[in-house]
Amino acid sequence: MISVYLYLPGMECPKGKHVKKKTAYGILLAFVLISILLLTLQGPEGTVRLSETVRLQFEKIGYQSDFHAFRSDAHLVVYFILGAALGLFGRTCGWRWWIAAALGCGFGLLDEGIKVLLPTREFDAVDLLKDWIGIGLGTAAVWMLTKGRK
């Protein structure tokens, strides 16, 4: 059995029982990218079911939104997470902030472009703009919160 221990700055971790930040952030980034692709490639029934289930859960805590607005706003959240993951990974690789942001924006464009090829999906410029805003905010948040660290 393999045990993985992630540590936070200032915490003592058992010798030999941790994963280096670069590897951990790389795994996080891969997970986020794969999740986005799976969301893009799922069928229309799965997309509607997932979106409506999550939207109804948010309604229970007071966030009111129609189905299409909720799905569009979800792009901000999902791509913020991608931007943060790219920012964390990029920091450990020594990238400049704009490299992480550019890669994220490129992935957003690729993701929207894939939808042109899928029979039940379509390219949406508003969704792409929200993807890019989410990437920018996620990357900027990581860069500001980790300023001076690698």
Structure description:
The N terminus is likely disordered. This protein has a domain of 77 residues. The chain has 150 residues and is mostly helical. Helix 3 crosses helix 4. It is globular, with a radius of gyration of 17 Å. It contains five helices and no strands.
Compute the number of helices.
5
Number of strands: 0
Biggest sheet descriptor: none
Helix content: over 70%
Straight-line N-to-C gap: 30 Å
Provide the low-confidence segments as ranges: 1-11
Derived structural class? mainly alpha
C-alpha Rg, in Å?
17 Å
Taking all residues together, what is the mean pLDDT? 85
Sequence of secondary-structure elements: HHHHH
Strand content: under 5%
Shape: globular
Can you give me a brief rundown of this structure?
With 150 residues, this protein is mainly alpha-helical.
Can you lay out the helices and strands and say which pair or pack?
Layout (H helix, E strand, L loop, with lengths): L20 H21 L2 H17 L6 H27 L3 H21 L7 H21 L5
Helix pairs in contact: 1-3, 1-4, 3-4, 3-5, 4-5
What keyword list fits this structure?
single chain; 150 residues; mainly alpha; 71% helix
